[in-house]
Amino acid sequence: MLKGKHIVLGICGGIAAYKSVTLLRLLTKAGAEVQVVMTPAGKEFITPVTLSSLSQRPVVSEFFTANTGEWHSHVDLGLWADLMVIAPATASTMAKMAHGVADNMLVTTYLSAREPVMIAPAMDLDMYRHPTTQRNLRQLAADGVMIVEAETGALASGLQGKGRMAEPEEIFAIIERYFARCESLAGKKAVVTAGPTYEKLDPVRFIGNFSSGKMGFAIAGELADRGAEVTLVAGPVSLTVDHPRIRRVDVESAEEMCDATTQAFAGSDIAVFSAAVADYRPAERKDQKIKREGVATQTIELVRNPDIAARCGDMKRRGQVTVGFALETDDGHDAAHKKLHNKNLDFVVLNSLKDKGAGFRTDTNRVTIVSEDGEQAFPLKSKREVAADIVDAIEKAMK
Ligand code: PMT
Fold this sequence. Notes:
By secondary structure, the protein is an alpha/beta fold. The chain has two domains: 6-182, Rossmann fold (3-Layer(aba) Sandwich), CATH 3.40.50.1950; 189-398, CoaB-like (Rossmann fold, 3-Layer(aba) Sandwich), CATH 3.40.50.10300. It contains 14 helices and 21 strands. It has helices at 17-29, 42-45, 48-55, 74-80, 91-99, 105-112, 125-129, 131-142, 168-182, 214-225, 254-265, 308-315, 333-342, 383-398, and strands spanning 6-11, 33-38, 83-89, 117-121, 146-147, 151-154, 160-164, 189-194, 199-202, 205-207, 229-234, 246-250, 270-273, 280-282, 302-304, 321-328, 347-352, 364-365, 367-371, 374-377, 381-382. An eight-stranded mixed β-sheet has the order 12-11-8-13-16-17-19-20, with helices on both faces. Strands 2-1-3-4-5 form a five-stranded parallel β-sheet, sandwiched between helices. Strands 6-7 form a two-stranded antiparallel sheet. Helix 1 (17-29) runs parallel beside helix 3 (48-55), helix 1 (17-29) crosses helix 9 and helix 10 crosses helix 14. It is elongated. It starts with 5 loop residues before the first strand and ends with a helix. Bound molecules: ligand PMT. Ligand PMT binds at residues 193, 195, 211-216, 254, 273-277, 279, 305, 307-309, 324-327, 339, 351, 359-361.
């Protein structure tokens, strides 16, 4: 699984740096090519000579080699790598990553990384549980960084608690699982709807909703990271996407979203309907701005929009897996079951606006997966982690 994979191994200044030697050894033995990048403090804990001997590559730590002036390109490293792993990740490096403080080679490499990034934090228990560290961890998770949780046990300070870096064997197993997952959807095609739709009333006004597209973009990213070719049909959102396997189609109204989605659905193996589609649109779209002078009240006649998920449900053929969402303001279980049947879905992802941190605009969500087989409730997680849970359920449904 790891043969020929390019891995940037970032090492920061913490006592757990000695464990990185074992991790490096495991990675190279498995056939990975590893480029070590150290922070200046990292070199205080373990020598570059050990690491360069094991990786058979010079360790990179400075922006350039002082005596020759040779420039070390963080951009090239970002393009070269299939995965960046930072182990140990110290509080200081995590803070710099979360805030874009690019004052060393490791953080600049992180900021240039196009590949996924995994971190294994390690620090003393008080530093680990400090609200600042926890805030930075949440921010990094929301940015899509995979986090290998610190373990509880004896710490270098002599204290006992949470903050020990996970054992190298465990990090290695997670890396192996990551690469196995990367190819789990290779050759599959997916279509994902995301964001709101805008239904025009006149040239300056519309009926819309608060969807930011974050949930749908996270799902598209997760599917693409696992090897699927994804068509992302996006309503008007301010998010950007930069993934070679994601083709983005921008639309504005429900009718436009319906056309683009049904077209892509015909050739897809997977469809995820995470967009907040306006159920109605104005019966008439005025060519000129509606004037308010002399008009005390306005009545707008609305007509039903096509139900995109239900349309795809009618077109669905054997082997296609379709997933809908249910956005409710109460517990919503009955509504989710109705949607499951009415839209011919494999499962419904229920999220409720009554849950803090769930639903529109947030970087987190709390969902329950509702299917014929029962319900699975998940705790509040970053939208990227929620996307991984949803894609795990899709893969299960495909078997
Ligand atoms: O975008 P974010 O800010 O990250 O917020 C995420 C989200 C809250 C928008 C997302 O998690 C979510 O719940 N999306 C579905 C919202 C919604 O419209 O739910 P619904 O219960 O009204 O619709 C049920 C399902 O039918 C959904 O899969 C919806 O995409 C689909 N639908 C609805 C109407 C319609 N005309 N066509 C559809 O395809």
